[in-house]
Request: fold
Amino acid sequence: MGYAPNPLCSVCHGAGFVNPLTLDGRVDYSKYVICPAPDCLADSKQHYRETGEYLELKGVSSRLQTFSAFKVRQGTEKAVRAFHDLTRGNTDKAFLLCYGGNGCGKTHLCQALTSELDKRGIDAHYYSVPALMRTLRESISTNNTDEWVKSLTLMGGLILDDYGLGRESDWTEGCLEEIIDARWQEKRITVLTTNRDLAELSPRIRSRFSDAEMSVIVHISANDYRPVKREG
Reply:
């Protein structure tokens, strides 16, 4: 674990947890909460959530992938607004589909969203879809496919990047459809990015993200912002 209580804390005396107070000011000995004292467990946990070690567990490759570091350019404005709305809880639509060409900022926005959702206490994870599909295929030999599907279905925020980047089997595509369908049923935060035309998405996935009551679809029309390597 990357965080710990303060052994010298005068509130919890190093335990990390305390009994909360009831509305009338009495101690509720039937419950425990994380110690909120300065420099104790709550602070330590929050600081750990901002470290590269923690973010790596969530799939975020760099602490530099933040909203403040994102360069808003013409063609990215609607997507940035949609990601911000989901981050701040300013929308009742749990699904977000973002599509656009390579290098237009989709991955940066996805990783920034993952970090910010976790700061809000939402258990969010970022996955590259091709890598996740490899993991699901490998899970067949270890007999834990059902555990993976259940975990991906139940986590608070599932951020799926680069859908359609590689060819998938009918089986892995079916797993992804099952996960997205289950999350749609439960209205759990789910983001999907792709560089494909929307007509190329699987009908079942396209249907879920086309639900206007549940989903927002945004297009990034900006070109690749990564520097072009010049010859010579």
User: Anything to note?
Assistant: The chain has two domains: 1-49, 61-220.
